[in-house]
Q: What sequence folds into this?
């Protein structure tokens, strides 16, 4: 079996920024996220040995923002020390040779799900993993598509399959949008049905399968739960739509497009220009052309912490 790993780029970026200690160049420029992101990718490669690797990114507003301007409206603004590093991280991705993909009007989640399904359909010999700490992606889990969920304390990423989704939500992966339609999602500012919590949502979905099934049988539901469902019926369907990941975008990526043989040696001058006294040697075994890199690796100290 071939293993392909698709990375949720901005999720990784934020984890690196908040997980790695502050680090500045001599002129005061912050660089902790830059070094953190690449260090985490190297750790991922070392732990998982993927045959293919690619990164998905969000690009601007999406169709969900058009549907609901308040979508993700509760999130704080990007910290200044992180925002100044983002252009450099995007440049680093470009130089690395790792394919980066996105689609205007859609979130990285939509692109990740669509590419994962394409890779799975391409060959029965393909296992696909999506690296992300976003539980929204649990809904795309199926045979040969799993989530690599980052862990704290230097532990390897946890593999999320159907069993783990059931443990998290007490529903099957394809029912996660229905679950969020009822419970809502404060991180994305999805309203859900006011007063319906996780236990009630799981119980309703176990009995009626979907939100549509719940409302087709609304007469069989009694008491306060029925009242809440009737009152917030529009929000329930609307929230489910917001929470549903698009899985059929035309991304045109194949396994051969994202084959991983190591990062490009073009990263060497990128890091040399950023005073990499404690980073360079970590790149040694990840560069495609190792002989060209040996001279630049003598000053590295392996003191980077791992979030996986």
A:
């Amino acid at each position: 079996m071939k293993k392909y790993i698709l990375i949720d780029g901005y999720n990784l970026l934020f984890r690196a920024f908040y997980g790695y200690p502050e680090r500045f160049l001599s002129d005061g420029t912050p660089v902790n996220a830059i070094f953190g992101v690449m260090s985490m990718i190297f750790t991922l490669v070392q732990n998982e040995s993927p045959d293919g690797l690619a990164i998905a990114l969000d690009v601007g507003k999406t169709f969900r923002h058009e549907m609901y301007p308040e979508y993700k409206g509760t999130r704080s603004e990007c910290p200044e020390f992180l925002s100044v590093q983002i252009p450099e991280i995007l440049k680093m991705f470009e130089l690395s040779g790792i394919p980066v993909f996105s689609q205007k009007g859609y979130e990285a989640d939509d692109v990740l799900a669509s590419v994962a399904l394409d890779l799975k359909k391409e060959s029965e010999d393909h296992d696909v993993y999506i690296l992300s700490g976003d539980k929204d992606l649990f809904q795309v889990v199926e045979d040969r598509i799993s989530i690599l969920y980052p862990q704290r304390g230097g532990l390897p990423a946890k593999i999320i399959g159907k069993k783990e989704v059931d443990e998290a939500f007490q529903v099957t992966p394809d029912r996660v949008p229905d679950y969020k339609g009822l419970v809502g999602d404060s991180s994305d500012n999805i309203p859900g049905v006011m007063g319906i919590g996780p236990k009630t949502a799981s119980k309703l979905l176990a009995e009626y399968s979907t939100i549509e099934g719940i409302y087709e049988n609304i007469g069989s539901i009694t008491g306060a739960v029925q009242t809440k469902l009737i009152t917030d019926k529009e929000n329930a369907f609307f929230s489910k739509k917001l929470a549903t990941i698009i899985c059929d975008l035309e991304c045109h990526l194949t396994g051969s497009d994202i084959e991983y043989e190591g990062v490009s040696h073009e990263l060497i001058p990128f890091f040399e220009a950023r005073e990499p006294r404690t980073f360079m040697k970590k790149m040694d075994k990840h560069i495609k052309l190792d002989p060209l890199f040996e001279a630049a690796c003598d000053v590295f100290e392996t003191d980077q912490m791992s979030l996986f």
Observations:
- The two ends are 23 Å apart (CA to CA).
